[in-house]
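ARCHIVE CARD
Drawer: 12
Card no.: 0347
Subject: one protein chain, sequence and derived structure
Cross-reference: see card 0346
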Amino acid sequence: MRRGPEGSPPRRPDDRVSVIAYENLPGGPGPLAALRAWLRARGVDWMPFDLTAEVGVDLACARDPDGHARGWYDIRVSAAALRRLGLHPDQPAAHRAPGSFPPGR
């Protein structure tokens, strides 16, 4: 189990939902900018999440066959936080951004 923020109970590993998965390309958006764009596309123009308790960012790294480093971000948000905004994938009005993490899966 992952530890939650100071003073909070441990989080279960499955309590966050992947909302954005994208390749980390030079000049591309950072994770926070990508999350803000994802929210704006759904009509939310403010940051409704506690970034330390409700949002997580994973980065997977690998090398191309030609040796170049590549990376993929996976931005995960608390399921409860998504539900309170009607953005959880199980809710009828929610839309998940296309893409798999890492690509090819």
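Annotation on reverse: The first strand starts at residue 16 and ends at 23. The CA atoms of residues 21 and 99 lie 6 Å apart.
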